[in-house]
Amino acid sequence: MRALLQRVTEASVSLEGEVFSQIGPGLVVLVCTEKGDDEAAADYFARKIANMRLFADGDGKTNLSILDVGGEALVISQFTLAADWRKGNRPGFSAAADPETAQRLYKYLCQRLAGEGVPVMTGKFRSHMAVSLVNDGPMTIWMDGGEK
């Protein structure tokens, strides 16, 4: 599993020119399920995302989690995070999970993150989306692999 977290002041997803979902301050989470991923990987990612200290405290230090600041998460499935770009000029996506598995684990991750106490909004799986966000900081974190 891979995820790219972006701390935002606001973000939205639009489909065909209409806003589908939006959040205020919090995190945009672009997530990719890879072959071999399972619920345990999603559990690990949800727990880490909910508790990772990415927000500033009163002294300006990143000591607070999304839970601490009452932030929201906009979670978007993005299989392109599995891109293998090293060979040739067209990236390959063969490391990404098949669509059925990816959708199941994407929904599961969203449920687990909500279960951690984070309000979750989503994109629409297997849809062309326009994602708008204001990256706060900028603060961008790359998560790769579900090792514990």
Which descriptors would you attach to this protein?
148 residues; alpha/beta; D-tyrosyl-trna(Tyr) Deacylase, Chain: A; six-stranded mixed beta sheet; 3 helices
Per-chain topology:
Blueprint: E1 2-15, E2 18-23, E3 26-32, H1 39-51, E4 55-56, E5 62-64, H2 66-69, E6 72-77, H3 99-115, E7 120-122, E8 130-144
Parallel strand pairs: 3-6, 6-7
Antiparallel strand pairs: 1-2, 1-3, 1-8, 4-5
Helix pairs in contact: 1-3
Concise description?
Helix content is 23%, strand content 38%. By secondary structure, it is an alpha/beta fold.
Number of separate domains:
1
- What is the H level of CATH, i.e. the homologous superfamily? D-tyrosyl-tRNA(Tyr) deacylase
Q: Summarize the amount of helix as a percent range.
A: 10-25%
Q: What is the rounded distance between the termini?
A: 13 Å
The major beta sheet can be summarized as: 6 strands, mixed
Task: Indicate the overall shape.
Answer: globular
- Briefly note the structural class of the backbone: alpha/beta
What's the CATH architecture?
Answer: 3-Layer(bba) Sandwich
The mean pLDDT is: 95
Regions with little confidence, pLDDT below 50 for 5+ residues: none
Order of helices and strands: EEEHEEHEHEE
> Beta fraction of the residues?
35-45%
- Rg calculated over all Cα atoms: 15 Å
- Based on DSSP secondary structure assignment, what is the total number of beta strands? 8
CATH topology (fold) name? D-tyrosyl-trna(Tyr) Deacylase, Chain: A
- The helix tally amounts to 3
Return the CATH class.
Alpha Beta
